[in-house]
From TrEMBL, chains A, B:
<dbReference type="GO" id="GO:0032259">
    <property type="term" value="P:methylation"/>
</dbReference>
<dbReference type="InterPro" id="IPR040372">
    <property type="entry name" value="YaeB-like"/>
</dbReference>
<dbReference type="Pfam" id="PF01980">
    <property type="entry name" value="TrmO_N"/>
</dbReference>
<dbReference type="InterPro" id="IPR023370">
    <property type="entry name" value="TrmO-like_N"/>
</dbReference>
<keyword id="KW-0489">Methyltransferase</keyword>
<dbReference type="InterPro" id="IPR036413">
    <property type="entry name" value="YaeB-like_sf"/>
</dbReference>
<dbReference type="InterPro" id="IPR036414">
    <property type="entry name" value="YaeB_N_sf"/>
</dbReference>
<protein>
    <submittedName>
        <fullName>tRNA-Thr(GGU) m(6)t(6)A37 methyltransferase TsaA</fullName>
    </submittedName>
</protein>
<feature type="domain" description="TsaA-like">
    <location>
        <begin position="24"/>
        <end position="154"/>
    </location>
</feature>
<comment type="similarity">
    <text>Belongs to the tRNA methyltransferase O family.</text>
</comment>
<dbReference type="GO" id="GO:0008168">
    <property type="term" value="F:methyltransferase activity"/>
</dbReference>
<keyword id="KW-0808">Transferase</keyword>
<keyword id="KW-0949">S-adenosyl-L-methionine</keyword>
Length: 162, 162
């Protein structure tokens, strides 16, 4: 991890107290073919390899109905990332970009988001295509793609008709 | 909050230890026109009202370059949500769906995600359209929309040519 922790030319870190505003509960583990950061694709592709979202047993019942969706949003925790950079130099060439102008895993809250294609669900494991993260990445959430999802609840006063 | 905490017919909660796997740092606050859950739109719309992402000063420099993007991904913390439901009944009619088959704010890690249109950036405040959350919602992250973003770093071995 030492190479990941070193600052590149013109990168800017800030001093921060330990984070303490809210706490996450990992809900499972992501299995992918990639065991080293340098092997991960830069972005996932829907024709990429099958990956597994392995849910902890307590959450198995929460998958009911997910099979109705073709595209899912997956949230995960990029647990190997430093969190204190405000400016980053992706090419190590001295040119920097603000952290929020990048999709780098290095960010104050290293939450990865991906839109993936659902391949199948079997005994608490969701098989998908389109991820780009390391094998063993902690899983935070699964939701239907917002574009495909029709709210199941009654309309509310602030809801526009479409 | 009591009404939010009550279980509806056939909803299923699980017993959980307090979450302790990772910790979040709020990076700012979201300002929206909605002060009560019942007034929030069900989903944000790109022609909805302007909302403000008010960044804490330590992160102002991290916005550099964000103005180049038209569409942004925003992550926020739904701090009023219970986190222990595996089956939910959005219509309170006894019919339930698994939590992961819904985009409900009630989920093990209540992280909201939205794709929003950038209106402008001024002195650490990002003005956007397309949010649906309560005024005062804690902000977790801002990223360029994955569809519009071209990675700034050199290609890697796992990257497909497009």
């Amino acid at each position: 991890m030492s190479s990941v922790q070193e600052l590149r030319v013109n990168e800017q870190a800030v001093e921060l107290a330990p984070p303490s505003d809210a706490t996450l509960r990992f809900i499972g583990t992501i299995r992918t073919p990639w065991h080293d950061r340098k092997d991960c694709p830069r972005q996932g592709h829907h024709d990429g390899p099958e990956c597994q979202l392995v849910l902890d047993p307590v959450w198995h019942d929460a998958l009911e109905g997910l099979e109705d969706y073709d595209t899912l949003e997956v949230l995960y925790w990029l647990d190997q990332s430093r969190r204190d950079l405000v400016r980053q130099s992706p090419k190590s060439d001295g040119r920097t970009f603000g952290t929020f102008a990048l999709r780098s895993p290095v960010r104050p809250n290293p939450i990865g988001t991906a839109m993936v294609k659902l391949v199948g669900i079997n005994n608490g494991t969701v098989v998908v295509r389109g991820l780009d993260c390391l094998d063993g990445t902690p899983l935070l959430d699964i939701k239907p793609d917002r574009c495909a999802f029709s709210p199941k609840a009654p309309p509310k006063s602030g809801t526009q008709t479409e």
